[in-house]
Amino acid sequence: MLSINNNFPEYAVPGVKQVRFEPYADNGGSIVAIAGEDYAVIGADTRLSTGFSIYTREQKKLFKLSERTVLGATGCWCDTLTLTRLLQARLQMYEHEHNKSMSTPAVAQMLSTMLYYKRFFPYYVSNILAGLDAEGKGCVYSYDPIGHCERSTFRAGGSAGAQLQPLLDNQIGLKNMQNVSEVPIPKEKALALLKDVFISAAERDIYTGDSIYIVIITANGIQEEKFELRKD
Amino acid sequence: MFRNQYDSDVTVWSPQGRLHQVEYAMEAVKLGSATVGLKNKQFAVLIALKRAVSELSAYQKKIIPIDDHIGISISGLTADARMLSRFMRTECLNHRYSHDAPMPVGRLIALVGNKMQICTQRYDKRPLGVGLLVAGYDDQGPHIYQTCPSANFFDCRAMAIGARSQSARTYLEKHLNTFMDSDLQELVAHGLRALRDTLPNEVELNTKNVSIAIVGPKTPLRVSDEAELTRFLALVEGEERRGGGASATGDAGPAPDRPAGEDRDPQAAVAMDTE
């Protein structure tokens, strides 16, 4: 970069040059997942960026692991790719050994241990796992880079996570609202909310935008939808 | 067989230039129940006869899926087959991880051959007593491979191994030229007829003792379930058995000119086929 010794020879000073290699990159992106009584929805934007530049506007960040489990992963894209490949290999190994596909809670636990294996050189990835648990109820598991795992009903992660989570707390968790009754949120309302939430994210977060893919997981299988966002 | 002073160790050659331990290991393959593999222009099919240890136990699984595009059928020591299948699965998964593409079948077979060869040249190991029929589909098309405890492997158009498999091989040789142009249903029917020829008289093919696996273009390896087995078996129901009446011991097949109980000097089988 701006090296004093090379660019301004009159100011050159003797000394050791420290050469640094930054192993991580932040490629941006946001994920939101909502779990219902018998469904789970997860959406992720499609923008991959670095600094103030855009790498691509069409990168899917949702990875289908099985017929009832989908992982959304953002952050460092190289770590995301490696982590998802490793996950898929482990899932196939499980299927060979046990003659059945892994349940969502099992994948959740396995992902947690896989992330912790790299406790001292972590995957710089923000993970959210969505799917149906063993009883067919929707579930959302969210992670930090070293594998802390928590099951919840709704979660926002990625670059706009901090901005979107309070909005979800209010709309789905009904926090700070008066005279409201707890009703399980229906699928259509969850989808509409998801889209609104991403529109808000695209307004304020430079790393989120272009479009989102939404994956809906139900007992009948997996459906995918695409939804356009601001391109700026 | 007969006892030799050169057969106690796999690292000892006999004066005739044979490794007796390896040949004895090939005998183990002939003890397993029969299995047939054949292919047409697109699909590779494995058909296996399952055996139950007793009426109480389940039938021993003969077909092991390795990857979406490769499956194997085993004959011989099941435990050895399990170790091999675990090795093959790991290799295929690693290949997919690093190359983002399915493992070419021939390359996997070469890796298996190398692994099996080690056991034929070390004093502290024994040859793996299992023969495999490998069915796979890659960008070169469908493949059927046979592997032996001698670590040899053969690219086949069709093959049968296991107890009384000579009758099956005879059937396959007779109809070899029709396989390439058969459709999938006819191919499976041929395989079932070949397998049926290895059965003793009182046993019939049914959905409990038959296993079928098919792999092909846009068709990931699939071991047939009960409904599909019923449909396939219906294709060959009621037909006359051609080979029938094979002897209950050894792999002699329906050969009336060979008197039973004769001590045959084994042919130099190490570098050649398993029969």
TrEMBL record, chain A:
Pfam families: Proteasome (PF00227)
Protein name in the entry: Proteasome subunit beta type
Coiled-coil residues: none
Organism of derivation: Iphiclides podalirius (scarce swallowtail)
Superkingdom of origin organism: Eukaryota
Entry-linked SUPFAM superfamilies: N-terminal nucleophile aminohydrolases (Ntn hydrolases) (SSF56235)
Cellular localisation: Nucleus
CDD domains: proteasome_beta_type_1
Oligomeric and partner information: The 26S proteasome consists of a 20S proteasome core and two 19S regulatory subunits. The 20S proteasome core is composed of 28 subunits that are arranged in four stacked rings, resulting in a barrel-shaped structure. The two end rings are each formed by seven alpha subunits, and the two central rings are each formed by seven beta subunits. The catalytic chamber with the active sites is on the inside of the barrel.
Lyase recorded as keyword: no
Keywords (A to Z) from UniProt: Cytoplasm, Proteasome
Main location (coarse class): nucleus
Cytoplasm keyword on record: yes
From TrEMBL, chain B:
SUPFAM superfamilies: N-terminal nucleophile aminohydrolases (Ntn hydrolases)
Signal peptide: none
Keywords for the protein's UniProt record, in alphabetical order: Cytoplasm, Nucleus, Proteasome
Residue ranges of the region described as Disordered: 238-275
Gene3D superfamilies assigned to the protein according to its UniProt record, in alphabetical order: Glutamine Phosphoribosylpyrophosphate, subunit 1, domain 1
Subcellular location: Cytoplasm; Nucleus
Pfam families noted in UniProt: Proteasome (PF00227), Proteasome_A_N (PF10584)
Recorded superkingdom: Eukaryota
InterPro entries: Ntn_hydrolases_N (IPR029055), Proteasome_alpha (IPR050115), Proteasome_alpha-type (IPR023332), Proteasome_alpha1 (IPR035144), Proteasome_asu_N (IPR000426), Proteasome_sua/b (IPR001353)
Record-linked CDD domains: proteasome_alpha_type_1
Domain Proteasome alpha-type subunits: from-to ranges: 6-28
Main location: cytoplasm
PANTHER family given in the database record: PROTEASOME SUBUNIT ALPHA/BETA
Family: Belongs to the peptidase T1A family.
Chain's role: The proteasome is a multicatalytic proteinase complex which is characterized by its ability to cleave peptides with Arg, Phe, Tyr, Leu, and Glu adjacent to the leaving group at neutral or slightly basic pH. The proteasome has an ATP-dependent proteolytic activity.
Subunit structure: The 20S proteasome core is composed of 28 subunits that are arranged in four stacked rings, resulting in a barrel-shaped structure. The two end rings are each formed by seven alpha subunits, and the two central rings are each formed by seven beta subunits.
Protein name: Proteasome subunit alpha type
Organism: Iphiclides podalirius
Taxon lineage: Eukaryota, Metazoa, Ecdysozoa, Arthropoda, Hexapoda
